[in-house]
Amino acid sequence: MASELEPEVPAIDQSLLECSAEETAGKWLQSTDLTREVYQHLAHYVPKIYCRGPNPFPQKEDMLAQHVLLGPLEWYLCGEDPAFGFPKLEQANKPSHLCGRVFKVGEPTYSCRDCAVDPTCVLCMECFLGSIHRDHRYRMTTSGGGGFCDCGDTEAWKEGPYCEKHELNTSETEEEEDPLIHLPEDVIARTYSIFAIMFHYAVEILTWEKESELPADLETVEKSDTYYCMLFNDEVHTYEQVIYTLQKAVNCTQKEAIGFATTVDRDGRRSVRYGDFQYCEQAKSVIVRNTSRQTKPLKVQVMHSSIVAHQNFGLKLLSWLGSIIGYSDGLRRILCQVGLQEGPDGENSSLVDRLMLNDSKLWKGARSVYHQLFMSSLLMDLKYKKLFAVRFAKNYERLQSDYVTDDHDREFSVADLSVQIFTVPSLARMLITEENLLTIIIKTFMDHLRHRDAQGRFQFERYTALQAFKFRRVQSLILDLKYVLISKPTEWSDGLRQKFLEGFDAFLELLKCMQGMDPITRQVGQHIEMEPEWEAAFTLQMKLTHVISMMQDWCALDEKVLIEAYKKCLAVLTQCHGGFTDGEQPITLSICGHSVETIRYCVSQEKVSIHLPVSRLLAGLHVLLSKSEVAYKFPELLPLSELSPPMLIEHPLRCLVLCAQVHAGMWRRNGFSLVNQIYYYHNVKCRREMFDKDIIMLQTGVSMMDPNHFLMIMLSRFELYQIFSAPDCGKRLSSEITHKDVVQQNNTLIEEMLYLIIMLVGERFTPGVGQVNATDEIKREIIHQLSIKPMAHSELVKSLPEDENKETGMESVIEAVAHFKKPGLTGKGMYELKPECAKEFNLYFYHFSRAEQSKAEEAQRKLKRQNREDTALPPPILPPFCPLFASLVNILQSDVMLCVMRTVLQWAVEHTGCAWSESMLQRVLHLIGMALQEEKQHLENVMEEHVVTFTFTQKISKPGEAPNNSPSILAMLETLQNAPYLEVHKDMIRWILKTFNAIKKMRESSSTSPVAETEETITEESSRDKDKAERKRKAEIARLRREKVMAQMSEMQRHFIDENKELFQQTLGLEASNSAVLDNSPMVSDVTLTALGPAQTQVPKQRQFVTCILCQEEQEVKVESKAMVLAAFVQRSTVLSKNRSKGIQDPEKHDPLFMHPDLSCGTHTGSCGHIMHAHCWQRYFDSVQAKEQRRQQRLRLHTSYDVENGEFLCPLCECLSNTVIPLLLPPRNIFNKLNFSDQPNLTQWIRTISQQINALQILRKEESIPNIASSKNSKNMDKLQLPEGFRPDFHPKNPYSDSIKEMLTTFGTAVYKVGLKVHPNEEDPRVPLMCWGSCAYTIQSIERILSDEDKPLFGPLPCRLDDCLRSLTRFAAAHWTVALLSVVQGHFCKLFASLVPDDSYGDLPCILDIDMFHLLVGLVLAFPALHCQDFSGISLGTGDLHIFHLVTMAHIVQILLTSCTEANGMDQETPAGEEELAVLALYKTLRQCTGSVLKEIPSGWHLWRSVRAGIMPFLKCSALFFHYLSGVPAPPEIQVAGTRHFEHLCNYLSLPSNLISLFQENSEITKVLIESWCQNSEVKRYLNGERDAISYPRESNKLIGLPEDYSSLINQASNFSCPKSGGDKSRAPTLCLVCGTLLCSQSYCCQTELEGEDVGACTAHTYSCGSGVGIFLRVRECQVLFLAGKTKGCFYSPPYLDDYGETDQGLRRGNPLHLCKERFKKIQRLWQQHSVTEEIGHAQEANQTLVGVDWQHL
Ligand SMILES: [Zn+2]
Ligand SMILES: [Zn+2]
Ligand SMILES: [Zn+2]
Ligand SMILES: [Zn+2]
Ligand SMILES: [Zn+2]
Ligand SMILES: [Zn+2]
Ligand SMILES: [Zn+2]
To answer: What are its GO biological-process terms (predicted)?
Structure first.
């Protein structure tokens, strides 16, 4: 039954194709009831076109819809063929000067920090590049989708609103012109009617809620039983849950389920089953049942197919409308009119209203389609934007409530359009004035936040997860509030004033609910049971911070508003304080004859709250009053008399006391929640509207009351009143027997209180408090941040408060206070404080945390010591207070203050036990210093005749009063100056006394004639000098002592090095070094050094001793001793590849005998150079393995190394390794028979070798026929003429110890296993080939690195590379001794045959397809296997030489064939030299042999140049190879950079420097060889242009070129769509830096299967592009990604820096980023050196969390 209902793709109905658009439109034009006519058409055709089966066919549907449904509409609208009609409309149109480009996900957007009205104003890339802002300070972000370009919007930009392109469209007649005048009357009429019908249809069907019934006028007679089971998106269920459920419910494969889930997530709904009602219902119930267990079930509907059809067409229609209005602004206006026209049901019945109000019921896809239509219509038409804004504001409450209860993200809600409307200043102002928007937003917000306590305050304790979820969503309303306030009015109308103040009232109501929320009580006895909820309240505070600041900014703009707001705020605060003094009897405090009444209250015993937004707002407004001087102009307008200073200070003071008590450890039992709250109270994100304002409120209070009263209240709140009021307070310890903890606690409280007084007097950098401006404020912040340490730009930004535009104002002042230091290859650019700013440093700066304060103190003292100054850090000179705060300074000279100072000094003088602390004293000294600075300032600035009332110096000179009769403060300071226990503070006390004297002098000089006070100063002066001299002497003694100690230490060090010489040598470079030692020996220096051949320079035998890093035992490297090994890492590599697509297809069948010159896949060996005994290593490795197995049983965690694959970390340096290489002596010397007489020339040698090969081949053939008797065998042997001296039955003895043999096999097998990715098999004939290949490949890759960096071949090679190459070459040369002789001989024969023709092989590559260096290494290293049976007297060296010459000749021919084609126009001027004539002759020969297909090149000069250039890499590699093989040191000439090395290389390699003479010397054989090489069919195909070949020299591979400007990469990536899911934007576009491919990383869509596991696109790509290793750039994150294999990866710092020398990983800051070439080179070098895997290993070892990342899914 069911299967019948799932038919094949239905064939296209013929009637559809026959339907003519023109005819239909014609019919409509005649019709009287157009609506009915059109509806009938739709009712008939829509179900026939859309949704005709289980799967949609979008292309077919679109084609038919255009033909049958949209076509008639277009004909009707134009009244003619739309192909002509629309272009006409477009031409008549005067296009808007708005850009309005709607952003795609991930598209780059730009905001100008100088000119944008607010940060939401953005430009698209095209407009940005054509605007003036590209030279301004701009910020770059990537769009999250939605939103559009604001180019052309004059309200969005303070300057340069148009880009070049859109500027053209601005004309004299600005926006007021009606666009309809450009349209013909009849078109207008028809457009109206057709838009009205179609828009109405779309809205009706999209908002249709019935599941099986259509609107009456769309119902058709016959109705099929076809339904869809429609699955809807929600944000509750995960991808995995949905996929799993679908597989169960509709019986689909995992792949299909992934497809469904992806579409549901993207579009919001997807039909998952098609069939009759029953069938769909059944699937629905399974889905619901399966997903309802923990959460609410997935939403599923069974819908009739015709409804789905109409809805799909409805969406299509909206997109169509959006594109049609693009032709003409007139059409757009008509659509706007239609949309906003009120419907028959009155209010809220326009189509636009209906859509908005149904928003939360629509699925994602439908929402985004109509949102886009709104953006391209209503928001692009300046007139209708206003009308739409009004509709939006009227519906605001409903829309927000819908959004709050909906679960989709905000970007999918129509509420999100608020940003487009509210940020337009004129609209925002209009909505405030006319729609009372401020009040609406705040009230809506309050309505949704209902959890209140008994006093009506917010209460977040015990709120549920659902409430928390709702709370998060409600926060977006605060954002709306911010948008509305972000642009401040320049002019105020009465209406605006009135509505703003109404909004302010509502805002005060909101703050009132926060005032005193989350109160806490000190926990005594036991610890709190549950940490109370605190985050919600702080989140609210944090989110509101900018709004509170902006409210104040608005008030500051208008005096009337400010005064009214001040009054309102005060009234609300008074309400909050209602019942404040009720009940309790006040208590009386008195000290020094002053007394005051206050309430009885103890922070440590009663409730206290950190949240006091109303008090703080009042403090803010008070400062504004002070700044604006309104308080002086119209004092009668202000309710100043209503202010009760004790009431104002009460709550802020409690809050600060709470902080002090927490700091003193009194609230320990209240847990972390309190600690966190205190932290955020001071934090840069909150402090502006919390801590800072509390300080201001206290300053306000002090300035309005008797400072003595204030101090007494403060003492009382700090619970210190008893200590300072007691008459004998100086003796508090002797009289009290108190617990030590309490004393400690009180000490801290005293310190905190003194600190608070310092802040109250010293913090004058808020404009309005002190006479400063905003620049001074920010400068001071920066100076203090940089006093701690030099900082990077981003660090500094983070430590400064941001305003609502995310600006700190730092850039405008930073130059004045700091120097910028550029970054190096790593690290960041840094700002350093200018030295002249140090004098502004205030040790008690109020935004320092404790840790910062002590760091800053240390740094500043150090600086002073470096400058040889005294280390006192006196208080800086401060700006004067504003008049409203001016009386505040008197607190410093108030009696109570002096009493406190005296008391503390008294304690310090007596210094008994723990009754006082140094910090306490330090603070008192600072306060005294401040008072002196103040007095000095007063004296300096005093006007004539005025008396300075600040007389601190006089007061501290007076002794204390009875009954104590204590000495004066000054006297005590003089006493303390010599106290031995106050060494640190001496400089400060000295500074105080000096300043005191200076002031005294000033006073005296101003009042009376100068008195001879000099004597005192002189004595003072001289005693100071004496003191100075004494200190200098001491310093000198200290310096000498230090030097002596240093000398001793370095002596000891030397001794230590001597004792542990080997260890040091080894770390400095093993055998440091062979060559260096030899260079000094006279024997070598006179001779020309030659690395191979019979003339090879004889190297004296060197004994080599090495030490095992594991057991520290020393051992000599010898043939017969225990093996020593180097930790090594073998990996496949494509770094040198010229053909990335190739790779190894079938590892089991792959034959690595010949390396193709494209070097498509090689095996690289690296080593950290650390040496171990083979057995020590084995023991170590076994233990690692055992440990890992135990660990894996417990928890299957990845480690940075994979033990199962033989990986381990070098025990010394933790470098990732996967095998070991044995250390060997030069292996050639072991087999060399020193017989140099009468060696054959090349021709003879080739003949001999060919005979030997021939003999071997016959023998092999014999052996391969098993059933031939041995006698017969021997008979054949006789028949076979064995060449003279050749003994194929001879098997040489392996000279190596068993241990070395074992390691030869171990390493060989490892190379084979990793290189081919096969199971280890030590007997596989390919093992020796892989070893030789790895040797050749590694040498080639190192040669490339050296050439690229212009480094000499034998220059100071890093010792680990040197060690690695030496061991690897010698190993490869010795490996044949552990392989089967016949196998190695077989390899040799075949390799040899590729150059010397031999009929027995049919499958040899032509010389174009052989990498000659690989061939050379293979031949040379296989040769001993043949040579060991040769007793004819030919030396091994002769063979090496001839092999080398032969291969070199082949390479020359290879180069001439492939690399000399580009004819160079320049002819040489000098007559042709020997080489040039020779190469020309050779080239002629080649042309003859190839039948003249080879192009004629007349210039020998050009040919010779090409040959030389082409063969250089080969010669260099060969030199390295023979150097390590033979141990012959390199001639000094090629150890230095710069010079031309060609001749020296030739000498070293026994080559004539005229390479062509090789051919001439061996002309006999040359001709035969050249003919055989050239007449190969592949060579012919190449010369005929039928195939390609590699040419020489091969260029080095580089990483791809990156653009200078990072945004062009972002743009490129935003145009990239996922290759698998049909045009979807990729979420994590990732660029392969090796080949430039863009990939869709980290997503389901592009996962593929690799070796039976699902892997992401990046991992899959590494296997095809980098043989498992990859380097990527994650474009949206601006992050480099290293991957190796499936489990290894790490992030690496990107090569892009901003102007401050910093990277921006995650693109969070958005500063423009530019390519840093050096850093990119560094990444490239890591790649070329094959160090990526090692880098990952180190990163993972350093950061274990990287190990847990699922790298394979990226
Ligand atoms: Zn634009
Ligand atoms: Zn533009
Ligand atoms: Zn600008
Ligand atoms: Zn050892
Ligand atoms: Zn190591
Ligand atoms: Zn994808
Ligand atoms: Zn790639």
So the answer is: protein ubiquitination; ubiquitin-dependent protein catabolic process via the N-end rule pathway
